[in-house]
Amino acid sequence: MAQVLLYEALREAILEEMERDPRVCVMGEDVGHYGGSYKVTKGLCERYGDLRLLDTPIAENSFTGLAIGAAMTGLRPIVEGMNMGFLLLAFNQIANNAGMLHYTSGGNFTTPIVVRGPGGVGRQLGAEHSQRLESYFQSVPGLQMVACSTPYNAKGLLKSAIRSENPVILFEHVLLYNLKEHLPEASYTLSLERAEVVRSGNDVTLLTYSRMRHHVLQAARILVDQGYDPEIIDLISLKPLDMGTIATSIRKTHRAIIVEECMRTGGIGATLRASIMEHLFDELDAPIACLSSQDVPTPYSGILEEMTVIQPSQIVQAVKSMCDS
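User: That's the sequence. What structure does it adopt?
Assistant: C-alpha coordinates below.
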Protein backbone atom coordinates (compact mmCIF):
# COMPACT_ATOMS: atom_id res chain seq x y z
CA MET A 1 0.00 0.00 0.00
CA ALA A 2 1.40 3.36 -1.06
CA GLN A 3 0.89 6.59 0.91
CA VAL A 4 -0.59 9.34 -1.24
CA LEU A 5 -2.05 12.80 -0.77
CA LEU A 6 -5.76 13.38 -1.36
CA TYR A 7 -5.22 15.36 -4.56
CA GLU A 8 -2.96 12.56 -5.81
CA ALA A 9 -5.69 10.02 -5.03
CA LEU A 10 -8.09 12.03 -7.20
CA ARG A 11 -5.52 12.09 -10.00
CA GLU A 12 -5.06 8.32 -9.72
CA ALA A 13 -8.82 7.88 -10.05
CA ILE A 14 -9.00 10.02 -13.19
CA LEU A 15 -5.93 8.35 -14.68
CA GLU A 16 -7.28 4.83 -14.09
CA GLU A 17 -10.70 5.69 -15.51
CA MET A 18 -9.24 7.46 -18.57
CA GLU A 19 -7.10 4.39 -19.18
CA ARG A 20 -10.07 2.06 -18.74
CA ASP A 21 -12.61 4.04 -20.79
CA PRO A 22 -11.64 6.22 -23.79
CA ARG A 23 -14.90 8.18 -23.38
CA VAL A 24 -13.68 9.81 -20.16
CA CYS A 25 -12.45 13.38 -20.59
CA VAL A 26 -11.81 16.44 -18.42
CA MET A 27 -12.91 20.03 -19.06
CA GLY A 28 -12.12 23.17 -17.12
CA GLU A 29 -9.83 26.14 -16.64
CA ASP A 30 -6.13 25.19 -16.68
CA VAL A 31 -6.84 21.45 -16.36
CA GLY A 32 -4.54 20.65 -19.30
CA HIS A 33 -0.99 21.92 -19.58
CA TYR A 34 -1.01 23.61 -16.15
CA GLY A 35 -2.38 20.49 -14.46
CA GLY A 36 -5.27 22.09 -12.59
CA SER A 37 -5.25 24.78 -9.93
CA TYR A 38 -4.56 22.13 -7.25
CA LYS A 39 -2.61 19.78 -9.57
CA VAL A 40 -5.30 17.09 -9.68
CA THR A 41 -4.80 16.66 -13.44
CA LYS A 42 -1.02 17.21 -13.51
CA GLY A 43 0.69 15.20 -16.24
CA LEU A 44 -2.51 13.87 -17.81
CA CYS A 45 -2.44 16.24 -20.77
CA GLU A 46 0.96 14.93 -21.87
CA ARG A 47 -0.42 11.41 -21.74
CA TYR A 48 -3.87 11.85 -23.27
CA GLY A 49 -3.68 15.04 -25.31
CA ASP A 50 -5.48 18.37 -25.56
CA LEU A 51 -8.88 16.97 -26.53
CA ARG A 52 -9.26 14.70 -23.52
CA LEU A 53 -7.83 17.35 -21.17
CA LEU A 54 -9.59 20.39 -22.56
CA ASP A 55 -8.43 23.81 -21.36
CA THR A 56 -11.46 26.07 -21.52
CA PRO A 57 -12.06 29.83 -21.43
CA ILE A 58 -13.07 31.41 -18.12
CA ALA A 59 -16.76 30.79 -18.80
CA GLU A 60 -18.24 28.21 -16.41
CA ASN A 61 -21.69 28.27 -17.96
CA SER A 62 -20.26 27.61 -21.43
CA PHE A 63 -17.93 24.73 -20.68
CA THR A 64 -20.40 23.08 -18.29
CA GLY A 65 -23.01 23.23 -21.04
CA LEU A 66 -20.44 21.80 -23.44
CA ALA A 67 -19.78 18.92 -21.05
CA ILE A 68 -23.49 18.17 -20.65
CA GLY A 69 -23.91 18.05 -24.42
CA ALA A 70 -20.90 15.75 -24.66
CA ALA A 71 -22.41 13.47 -22.01
CA MET A 72 -25.72 13.33 -23.90
CA THR A 73 -23.91 12.18 -27.03
CA GLY A 74 -21.81 9.43 -25.46
CA LEU A 75 -18.81 10.88 -23.63
CA ARG A 76 -18.22 10.79 -19.86
CA PRO A 77 -16.90 14.25 -19.02
CA ILE A 78 -15.46 15.47 -15.73
CA VAL A 79 -15.95 19.18 -15.13
CA GLU A 80 -13.42 20.77 -12.78
CA GLY A 81 -14.38 24.00 -11.11
CA MET A 82 -11.24 25.96 -10.29
CA ASN A 83 -13.22 26.91 -7.20
CA MET A 84 -16.67 25.47 -6.51
CA GLY A 85 -18.04 28.96 -5.84
CA PHE A 86 -17.43 29.80 -9.50
CA LEU A 87 -19.83 27.04 -10.55
CA LEU A 88 -22.71 29.22 -9.42
CA LEU A 89 -22.22 30.74 -12.87
CA ALA A 90 -23.22 27.32 -14.26
CA PHE A 91 -26.15 26.75 -11.91
CA ASN A 92 -28.63 26.81 -14.79
CA GLN A 93 -26.69 24.22 -16.77
CA ILE A 94 -26.22 21.90 -13.77
CA ALA A 95 -29.78 22.23 -12.47
CA ASN A 96 -31.99 22.66 -15.52
CA ASN A 97 -29.92 20.55 -17.90
CA ALA A 98 -27.75 17.95 -16.15
CA GLY A 99 -30.26 17.27 -13.40
CA MET A 100 -33.41 17.13 -15.50
CA LEU A 101 -32.59 16.04 -19.06
CA HIS A 102 -33.06 12.33 -18.41
CA TYR A 103 -36.59 13.04 -17.17
CA THR A 104 -37.57 15.78 -19.60
CA SER A 105 -36.38 13.71 -22.58
CA GLY A 106 -38.56 10.80 -21.51
CA GLY A 107 -35.46 8.71 -20.78
CA ASN A 108 -33.96 9.21 -24.24
CA PHE A 109 -30.85 10.91 -22.86
CA THR A 110 -28.60 10.31 -19.89
CA THR A 111 -26.03 12.80 -18.58
CA PRO A 112 -23.14 10.82 -17.07
CA ILE A 113 -21.21 13.89 -15.97
CA VAL A 114 -19.08 14.50 -12.87
CA VAL A 115 -18.75 18.02 -11.48
CA ARG A 116 -15.90 18.33 -8.98
CA GLY A 117 -13.51 20.84 -7.49
CA PRO A 118 -12.28 22.56 -4.32
CA GLY A 119 -14.72 24.25 -1.98
CA GLY A 120 -15.41 24.92 1.67
CA VAL A 121 -13.94 27.46 4.04
CA GLY A 122 -10.20 27.63 3.46
CA ARG A 123 -7.71 29.84 5.24
CA GLN A 124 -8.43 33.47 4.45
CA LEU A 125 -9.75 32.88 0.95
CA GLY A 126 -12.53 35.41 1.39
CA ALA A 127 -16.29 35.06 1.06
CA GLU A 128 -16.48 34.32 -2.68
CA HIS A 129 -13.90 31.51 -2.41
CA SER A 130 -15.41 29.93 0.72
CA GLN A 131 -18.71 28.69 -0.69
CA ARG A 132 -20.41 25.46 0.36
CA LEU A 133 -22.54 24.64 -2.67
CA GLU A 134 -24.10 21.50 -1.21
CA SER A 135 -26.77 23.77 0.29
CA TYR A 136 -27.53 25.20 -3.17
CA PHE A 137 -27.74 21.95 -5.11
CA GLN A 138 -29.44 19.62 -2.62
CA SER A 139 -32.93 20.65 -3.74
CA VAL A 140 -32.30 20.02 -7.47
CA PRO A 141 -34.03 16.82 -8.65
CA GLY A 142 -31.87 14.36 -10.56
CA LEU A 143 -28.47 15.22 -9.01
CA GLN A 144 -26.39 12.98 -6.78
CA MET A 145 -24.03 14.62 -4.28
CA VAL A 146 -21.10 13.07 -2.44
CA ALA A 147 -18.42 14.64 -0.24
CA CYS A 148 -14.99 13.04 0.13
CA SER A 149 -13.03 13.35 3.37
CA THR A 150 -10.00 11.05 3.01
CA PRO A 151 -7.68 10.02 0.16
CA TYR A 152 -9.22 6.54 0.27
CA ASN A 153 -12.81 7.61 -0.19
CA ALA A 154 -11.84 10.42 -2.58
CA LYS A 155 -10.41 7.92 -5.05
CA GLY A 156 -13.14 5.33 -4.68
CA LEU A 157 -15.96 7.85 -4.92
CA LEU A 158 -14.55 9.62 -7.97
CA LYS A 159 -14.11 6.33 -9.84
CA SER A 160 -17.70 5.36 -9.05
CA ALA A 161 -18.97 8.82 -10.03
CA ILE A 162 -17.24 8.60 -13.41
CA ARG A 163 -18.86 5.22 -14.06
CA SER A 164 -22.32 6.33 -12.92
CA GLU A 165 -25.07 7.04 -15.44
CA ASN A 166 -26.28 9.89 -13.21
CA PRO A 167 -24.92 13.43 -12.93
CA VAL A 168 -22.77 13.47 -9.77
CA ILE A 169 -21.35 16.43 -7.87
CA LEU A 170 -18.23 15.52 -5.88
CA PHE A 171 -17.38 18.03 -3.16
CA GLU A 172 -13.71 18.28 -2.23
CA HIS A 173 -12.51 20.45 0.64
CA VAL A 174 -9.67 22.81 -0.16
CA LEU A 175 -7.97 22.15 3.19
CA LEU A 176 -7.91 18.37 2.76
CA TYR A 177 -5.87 18.13 -0.45
CA ASN A 178 -2.62 17.49 1.46
CA LEU A 179 -4.12 14.82 3.73
CA LYS A 180 -2.03 11.60 3.51
CA GLU A 181 -3.19 8.01 3.62
CA HIS A 182 -2.08 4.56 2.49
CA LEU A 183 -4.13 3.35 -0.47
CA PRO A 184 -4.51 -0.20 -1.83
CA GLU A 185 -2.53 -0.88 -4.96
CA ALA A 186 -5.47 -2.76 -6.49
CA SER A 187 -8.25 -0.79 -8.16
CA TYR A 188 -11.39 -0.22 -6.08
CA THR A 189 -14.65 1.72 -6.12
CA LEU A 190 -16.98 2.88 -3.33
CA SER A 191 -20.75 3.21 -3.16
CA LEU A 192 -22.12 6.67 -3.91
CA GLU A 193 -25.04 6.11 -1.53
CA ARG A 194 -23.48 4.77 1.67
CA ALA A 195 -22.34 6.49 4.84
CA GLU A 196 -19.28 5.28 6.78
CA VAL A 197 -19.24 4.40 10.47
CA VAL A 198 -15.90 5.96 11.37
CA ARG A 199 -16.06 5.08 15.06
CA SER A 200 -18.51 2.80 16.85
CA GLY A 201 -19.92 4.04 20.15
CA ASN A 202 -22.96 3.96 22.42
CA ASP A 203 -23.51 7.40 23.95
CA VAL A 204 -24.31 9.73 21.06
CA THR A 205 -24.32 9.69 17.24
CA LEU A 206 -22.17 12.39 15.62
CA LEU A 207 -23.20 12.92 11.99
CA THR A 208 -20.74 14.83 9.84
CA TYR A 209 -18.98 15.00 6.46
CA SER A 210 -16.01 16.49 4.59
CA ARG A 211 -13.52 18.50 6.69
CA MET A 212 -15.72 18.34 9.79
CA ARG A 213 -15.01 14.59 9.99
CA HIS A 214 -11.55 15.51 11.23
CA HIS A 215 -12.84 18.12 13.68
CA VAL A 216 -15.19 15.49 15.08
CA LEU A 217 -12.34 12.98 15.40
CA GLN A 218 -10.29 15.55 17.32
CA ALA A 219 -13.22 16.13 19.65
CA ALA A 220 -13.78 12.38 20.04
CA ARG A 221 -10.23 11.83 21.32
CA ILE A 222 -10.88 14.36 24.08
CA LEU A 223 -14.30 12.90 24.85
CA VAL A 224 -13.03 9.32 25.07
CA ASP A 225 -10.33 10.40 27.54
CA GLN A 226 -13.10 11.90 29.66
CA GLY A 227 -15.24 8.75 29.65
CA TYR A 228 -17.67 9.41 26.79
CA ASP A 229 -18.31 6.94 23.96
CA PRO A 230 -19.42 8.74 20.77
CA GLU A 231 -20.32 7.03 17.51
CA ILE A 232 -19.08 8.92 14.43
CA ILE A 233 -20.73 8.65 11.02
CA ASP A 234 -19.31 10.29 7.89
CA LEU A 235 -22.37 10.89 5.72
CA ILE A 236 -20.34 10.84 2.43
CA SER A 237 -23.57 10.63 0.40
CA LEU A 238 -25.30 13.97 0.82
CA LYS A 239 -28.01 13.12 -1.68
CA PRO A 240 -29.50 10.63 -1.17
CA LEU A 241 -28.83 10.39 2.58
CA ASP A 242 -28.06 6.88 3.86
CA MET A 243 -30.91 6.81 6.37
CA GLY A 244 -30.38 3.07 6.96
CA THR A 245 -26.94 3.56 8.52
CA ILE A 246 -28.12 6.68 10.35
CA ALA A 247 -31.19 4.92 11.76
CA THR A 248 -29.19 1.93 12.97
CA SER A 249 -26.89 4.25 14.90
CA ILE A 250 -29.62 6.40 16.45
CA ARG A 251 -31.58 3.32 17.55
CA LYS A 252 -28.45 2.37 19.49
CA THR A 253 -27.42 5.73 20.98
CA HIS A 254 -30.80 7.55 21.08
CA ARG A 255 -29.01 10.89 20.68
CA ALA A 256 -27.84 12.77 17.59
CA ILE A 257 -25.58 15.76 16.96
CA ILE A 258 -25.04 17.03 13.41
CA VAL A 259 -21.71 18.77 12.74
CA GLU A 260 -21.31 20.55 9.42
CA GLU A 261 -19.44 23.39 7.77
CA CYS A 262 -22.56 24.23 5.78
CA MET A 263 -24.76 27.14 6.81
CA ARG A 264 -27.49 26.58 9.39
CA THR A 265 -30.31 27.95 7.22
CA GLY A 266 -31.15 25.53 4.41
CA GLY A 267 -28.02 23.44 4.91
CA ILE A 268 -27.48 19.68 4.82
CA GLY A 269 -27.97 19.63 8.59
CA ALA A 270 -31.43 21.15 8.30
CA THR A 271 -32.48 18.48 5.80
CA LEU A 272 -30.95 15.70 7.88
CA ARG A 273 -32.57 16.94 11.07
CA ALA A 274 -35.98 16.97 9.36
CA SER A 275 -35.50 13.40 8.10
CA ILE A 276 -34.49 12.16 11.55
CA MET A 277 -37.48 13.86 13.15
CA GLU A 278 -39.82 12.38 10.55
CA HIS A 279 -38.57 8.80 10.71
CA LEU A 280 -36.85 8.39 14.09
CA PHE A 281 -38.58 10.75 16.50
CA ASP A 282 -39.59 7.98 18.91
CA GLU A 283 -35.98 6.78 19.15
CA LEU A 284 -34.65 10.09 20.48
CA ASP A 285 -34.00 10.72 24.16
CA ALA A 286 -32.93 14.32 23.56
CA PRO A 287 -33.54 17.04 20.94
CA ILE A 288 -31.23 16.88 17.92
CA ALA A 289 -28.34 19.35 18.09
CA CYS A 290 -27.09 20.92 14.87
CA LEU A 291 -23.67 22.60 14.91
CA SER A 292 -23.42 24.64 11.70
CA SER A 293 -21.51 27.61 10.34
CA GLN A 294 -22.97 31.00 11.04
CA ASP A 295 -25.21 32.56 8.41
CA VAL A 296 -22.72 35.26 7.41
CA PRO A 297 -20.39 35.71 4.44
CA THR A 298 -17.08 34.13 5.45
CA PRO A 299 -14.77 36.91 6.70
CA TYR A 300 -11.27 37.36 5.29
CA SER A 301 -9.85 37.93 8.78
CA GLY A 302 -8.41 34.65 10.06
CA ILE A 303 -9.71 35.18 13.59
CA LEU A 304 -13.22 36.07 12.41
CA GLU A 305 -13.21 33.26 9.86
CA GLU A 306 -12.46 30.72 12.60
CA MET A 307 -15.34 32.08 14.68
CA THR A 308 -17.86 31.37 11.90
CA VAL A 309 -16.95 27.66 11.64
CA ILE A 310 -17.56 24.96 14.26
CA GLN A 311 -14.43 24.06 16.24
CA PRO A 312 -13.61 20.79 18.13
CA SER A 313 -14.09 22.48 21.51
CA GLN A 314 -17.70 23.30 20.60
CA ILE A 315 -18.32 19.67 19.63
CA VAL A 316 -16.92 18.50 22.97
CA GLN A 317 -19.19 20.88 24.84
CA ALA A 318 -22.26 19.85 22.83
CA VAL A 319 -21.69 16.17 23.57
CA LYS A 320 -21.20 16.81 27.27
CA SER A 321 -24.32 18.95 27.49
CA MET A 322 -26.44 16.34 25.73
CA CYS A 323 -25.10 13.26 27.53
CA ASP A 324 -25.06 14.82 31.00
CA SER A 325 -28.54 16.35 30.89
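Residues 85 and 133 are 7 Å apart (CA to CA).
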